[in-house]
Design a protein that fits this description.
With 428 residues, the protein is an alpha/beta fold. It folds into two domains: 231 residues, Glycogen Phosphorylase B (Rossmann fold, 3-Layer(aba) Sandwich), CATH 3.40.50; 184 residues, Rossmann fold (3-Layer(aba) Sandwich), CATH 3.40.50. The chain has 18 helices and 13 strands. The strands form two sheets. It has a seven-stranded parallel β-sheet with strand order 3-2-1-4-5-6-7, with helices on both faces. Strands 10-9-8-11-12-13 form a six-stranded parallel β-sheet, sandwiched between helices. The radius of gyration is 22 Å and the shape is globular.
Length: 428
């Protein structure tokens, strides 16, 4: 039986790089394989101040048509203002002038493009809208009101309950405005997918009526094809701790540097045999913080720019161990970064500096790959770091047993099947 035609709306989509784009790509790729005809709406990437990964586009099936709408990228303005040391002006513009964020500038251009899409393909039965940014969800209201097309909210991140907002000084008036818009959109949605069970429970607590709507928990995942034919590198004479991604806002890993320097001072770790590789869009002065001029750290911590996804996987496979860093705070237990699934699939041991009762800790513990400590628990971080290093030095890292059956549930193919099932349940 023919699967329904669908429109997939994702602000972030290849050639834009990063976790959000990869989720959209893999959903579209495997939904098409399942028999859906998919049209995609995303931003015009040419002038976007965002890392590009053109290799990702090669994975798109030929049946998928990608439509792109222009978006004035406010990040160019923000860069200028930060350069002028006008950070407070940036925060004022972000939180008081844009609703629900600078990506709202995309909406009028996206609506014009939607008219063309629907004219060319009048058989579209449903839209799946990736969030964040939450601005994209307003297109669902437009589709429903103007064309009676139902829409599914695919939440990668929470909106008003997002830890990145809860743990900063976010204006009360802006939050109240966002809460009203969130209620309006969720009331109109025909279905919702949540990244985690905890995220779903948070939404149900805030909006009990959501329990009556079709829904599914669809986490990020891994694609086996990304790892083929990449193989783990042979053991090296240097312990290589790899972090994939960006440090930002509260994610400044000072506790790790403190512990690492102490272990070196106590001769538990030989600095000549230890290195940290940080791969992604990062500022060394921010990441190293007060240790930015430390002679030992500046020698063993290496910064690498954003690399294409495939190359990033290769770097992960060449690591001795992988670093996962999520500082604790309000609702941070619900954070489950996209990189964790590639980490798990790699089979490498994970130094997880994360909320011990959070989802990330639960995942790496149940997969058998991670040693967990809170970012404020320096003794526990030290114990875990030293344990990994000592196991490596004695050739016993392979004693860490990975539960491959548990990890297999996060394959992108299986997750696309869950999304396809939700689409079917959403249709009248």
């Amino acid at each position: 039986m023919r699967k329904p035609d669908l429109l997939y709306i994702s602000y972030f989509f290849p050639p834009l790089g990063g976790v959000a784009s990869i989720r959209g790509l893999k959903n579209v790729k495997y939904l098409a394989e399942l028999g859906h005809h998919v049209d995609v709406l995303s931003v015009q990437p040419k002038w976007m101040r965002h890392p590009k990964d053109f290799a990702l586009q090669k994975e798109l099936p030929g049946s998928v048509k990608v439509w792109r709408a222009f978006c004035p990228d406010a990040n160019w303005l923000f860069k200028l203002l930060w350069g002028l040391k006008l950070g407070k002006v940036v925060e004022f513009i972000r939180h008081r002038l844009f609703s629900p964020g600078p990506e709202a500038l995309w909406l009028p251009f996206a609506k014009m493009k939607l008219k063309r899409i629907l004219k060319q393909n009048p058989n579209i039965k449903v839209a799946v809208i990736s969030s964040g940014p939450p601005a994209a969800l307003f297109l669902g209201l437009w589709l429903q009101e103007k064309h009676q097309i139902p829409f599914i909210c695919d939440f990668r991140d929470e909106w008003t309950n997002n830890p990145e907002l809860l743990n900063i000084d976010f204006p009360a008036k802006a939050k109240k405005r966002d809460q009203a818009n969130e209620l309006r959109i969720l009331s109109a949605a025909s279905g919702v997918s949540y990244l985690t069970h905890l995220m779903r429970d948070n939404f149900f607590r805030l909006y009990p009526f959501l329990a009556e709507k079709p829904s599914a928990v669809i986490p990020n995942g891994f694609d086996d094809s990304d790892f083929d034919p990449i193989a783990p590198s042979p053991d090296s004479d240097v312990f290589r701790l790899v972090y994939s991604g960006s440090f930002y806002d509260r994610r400044q890993p000072d506790p790790l540097w403190q512990v690492l320097l102490k272990s070196i001072e106590e001769k538990r770790i030989n600095p000549a045999k230890f290195r940290v590789d940080i791969i992604g869009k990062n500022t060394p002065a921010f990441v190293l913080g007060k240790y930015s001029r430390h002679p030992v750290l500046t020698r063993i911590v290496n910064f690498h720019p954003f690399v294409p996804h495939r190359e990033n996987i290769a770097q992960i496979m060449q690591a001795t161990a992988l670093l996962l860093y999520i500082p604790s705070g309000e609702n941070t237990e619900s954070i489950l970064t996209g990189k964790i699934f590639d980490y798990l699939r790699s089979g490498k041991p994970i130094l997880a500096i994360v909320p011990p009762r959070g989802l990330a800790a639960k995942l790496v513990t149940e997969a058998g790959t991670g040693l967990v400590a809170d970012h404020l628990d320096a003794p526990a971080i030290a114990a875990n770091l030293n344990e990994l290093y000592q196991k490596w030095e004695s050739g016993k890292l392979d004693e860490i047993q990975v539960d491959t059956e548990y990890i297999s549930q996060f394959s992108r193919q299986k997750l696309a099947q869950a999304m396809s099932k939700l689409i079917e349940e959403t249709l009248p």
